[in-house]
Amino acid sequence: MEEKLQTLLREKRTFRPPREFTRAAHVGSKAIYKEVSSKRLRFWANQARELTWFSKWKKVLEWKPPHAKWFVGGRLNASVNCLDRHIDTATRNKVAILWEGEPGDRRAITYWELYRDVNRFANALKSLGVKRGDRVAIYLPMIPEAVVAMLACARIGAPHSVVFGGFAAHALRDRINDAKAKVLITADVGYRRGQQVLLKRNADQAVAETPCIEHVVVVRREEAPSTQIHMEPDRDVWYHRLMADAEAYCKPAVLDAEHMLFTLYTSGTTGKPKGIVHTTGGYMTQAVATTRWVFDLKPEDVYWCMADIGWITGHTYVVYGPLALGATAVIYEGAPDWPDRDRVWDIVERYGVTVFYTAPTAIRAFMKWGPEHPKNRDLSSLRLLGTVGEPINPEAWMWYHRNIGGERCPIVDTWWQTETGGIMITPLPGVTTTKPGSATIPFPGIEAELVDANGKPVKVGGGYLVMTSPWPGMLRTIYGDDKRYREQYWSRFPGKYFTGDGAKRDEDGYFWILGRVDDVLNVAGHRIGTMEVESALVSHPSVAEAAVVGRPHDVKGQVLVAFVILRSGHHASPALLDDLEEHVVTEIGAIARPEDIIITAELPKTRSGKIMRRLLRDIATGTALGDVTTLADPAVVAALKEKYEANES
Ligand code: PRX
User: Fold this and answer.
1) Strand pairing partners for 498?
2) pLDDT digits (tens, 9 = 90+) for 153-200
3) How far away, in angstroms, is 602 Cα from ligand 1 center?
4) Most buried of 290, 330, 342, 612 (most Cβ within 10 A)?
């Protein structure tokens, strides 16, 4: 870990931003931060008051490290906060979701209509036997029904587990089995780059090995009834049929603040993804507080967060945050460059998007399309831009500021994680002075710091990013594995939450996130565990051993490079390499497709048997050997290893 931190610190180039960005930090705003920091719990309690509660909490925080309970004794329902509380106001007839499918189909759904659908679907889930506490898996494209499904689960107190629609059948199966979900909600197909994604077919494959699933609900995304879709009698049921039969009103469950709202699987440092557990009161409080403060949403805003609901960003900033605030949110189903590179800007122009939130990888892709891009598009409706998911390089930040923001929109670079539930380190627009490439300072009420390998705080310089106190949206545990929760997050620096990220801190106290220092990679903003990809590779009959590392990439941030030792009797060939690639895609999904597979005769290991990942990274980037396509000669690896060991000592 230390070695990776040092490499990241070395690699981070210095960048001189234009003068207007180098003024003294957060002029005039220190007071806000100071005031909150001395009354942290009061600040969070005030944020929680913005929600609608059935009964108020008795205690703001109960902290028995590493377990936190927020708003102890309070009762609420997340769907009431996103819907019911708006329908007695003018927001009732406001558009909640402006949806656009990739093929060009469009829908505008008001809060009242969404409320209707959520109520009906909540009753439909009940009719399938789903009860409070039962887990429901959701495997859908970015269609309004995904939001309906999540809120319907929340309404009856059934925690949802959304699985990104780009995941393969095996990945879906493992997540369903781990959460022991009772019902799976999917669609016949989704659309991506003009292709149909056969979600139901994947779901069928997955469900063949998930004994816990009793029913599969299928949304008909295709207009014409698809003959290719197999509906298993007694198990599978069409969404539209269920909805036609369901009662119009479903009384919301009165839930404890610590009732589990959802679990969401994310990659860790082992082959098995972790089910991150979020509960209702604290998560909703942070979702609403951060959406309000960071995006500064006003009733007239048209807000577009490009994330898929399969990720935490989609949960917090497509669904729960904006809907709880009664905002109008744009949801787009497909690829940003389909059918052409103007798609994103067409959407911004058509709906008059005012607040736009995306990932650095998308910004870098836009940059590549040329200086004239976006051409002939009126982006003057935009007033605020956001970024999330990976470190943004200052050049991309400046491009975003100039070409998209017309030099008038503030940029919020927001650092957070699946585990944190909501934004943790970010500027506040109009309050915090930004520096291109820095996520700036912690959100009010959040306490972050950097520590060295011994856990000693680092005021200025490089270190490991930790949280020193609990926050409302924090994960409560890992589903079914509290031991892993303690070990993973709380054991490296006792008493502090370890994020897995390295960062630098400057003289103004600003944080510059460097990226992961553990075995988690970030490919185009998607979090992928090296071990997950390694397990997928060794499950192929020709593979004896595999090691996966990240290689820097100018658009995706990082790409995967796999080193593979073949079993005896198997030989490297272009066909085998293709086959291995496809195998990873079948096991995990296209997001885990290795960019390069290097066949090697041995993997360089230390005397204690640890794979020398730095050497592999240097080979993958060409710094160790120049351009290597095969390392099949054991002497090559041995010689390199010797050289590295000599350098190390
Ligand atoms: O490395 C950090 C990076 O994304 C990781 C969390 O990934 P995930 O749980 O998938 O959540 C992504 C969306 C919240 C972090 O450990 N990361 C996220 N935001 C930033 C970031 N790195 C730098 N700057 C950011 N703004």
Assistant:
1) 466
2) 999 999 999 999 999 999 999 999 999 999 999 999 999 999 999 999
3) 33
4) 290
